[in-house]
Amino acid sequence: xxxxxxxxxxxxxxxxxxxxxxxxxxxxxxxxxxxxxxxxxxxxxxxxxxxxxxxxxxxxxxxxxxxxxxxxxxxxxxxxxxxxxxxxxxxxxxxxxxxxxxxxxxxxxxxxxxxxxxxxxxxxxxxxxxxxxxxxxxxxxxxxxxxxxxxxxxxxxxxxxxxxxxxxxxxxxxxxxxxxxxxxxxxxxxxxxxxxxxxxxxxxxxxxxxxxxxxxxxxxxxxxxxxxxxxxxxxxxxxxxxxxxxxxxxxxxxxxxxx
Length: 259
What we know:
Blueprint: E1 4-14, E2 17-28, E3 32-36, H1 43-51, E4 56-65, E5 68-69, H2 75-81, E6 83-86, E7 93-97, H3 98-110, H4 121-141, E8 151-152, H5 158-172, E9 176-180, H6 188-201, E10 207-212, E11 225-230, E12 233-238, H7 240-249, H8 252-258
Parallel strand pairs: 3-10, 3-11, 6-9, 9-10
Antiparallel strand pairs: 1-2, 1-4, 4-5, 7-8, 11-12
């Protein structure tokens, strides 16, 4: 049975200023929802609030994953339930290789920490399976295995950081992925690489929220639904044609309509 993520009347303050003013959205596994909107509309605040960033104070509403309120859980438990956030600005983690980060994350989320000693059959089988998953994702990103020996995001270009987020998504296999302006700072080749990995992951077991200013990424990741966010609320919903209309007209006509 497909899982469902339900955002009900979500309200959030940042430094005592109300940013989210009653967000309602339902996303099912297998669906891709694009959220567009002008600067300051609350799109990134929504992403961080869903993931449980402590700076964002929830003042009302619920976020239900299969009926369980995620707002009552810390970020690591939300991740274990199947939530994943691809950051707009991924942070550098010196001293931690990409490979070690992925192994640690997989063990934490799946509860697959080997019980036997290093080199045991169980341990070796788990590591071999994980390595195959990583290699398959690297091939989609057109990277060789030397990438996993680099420290996480240290010295990475903007495009490499975003492609690294897609590598994590491919390996961790979340139920729901939130992509916070993944297209920002990407040239066209990097954007196509990111989209190719996402489209290979796309299917009945992945639901996604793609947050973006522009429809450029939506040319390569075609959404099932498009939502426009203004002043902390989703004010318009539709199909791909809504993104095209925004691209042609901008956001002022929507702001005028909703006051």
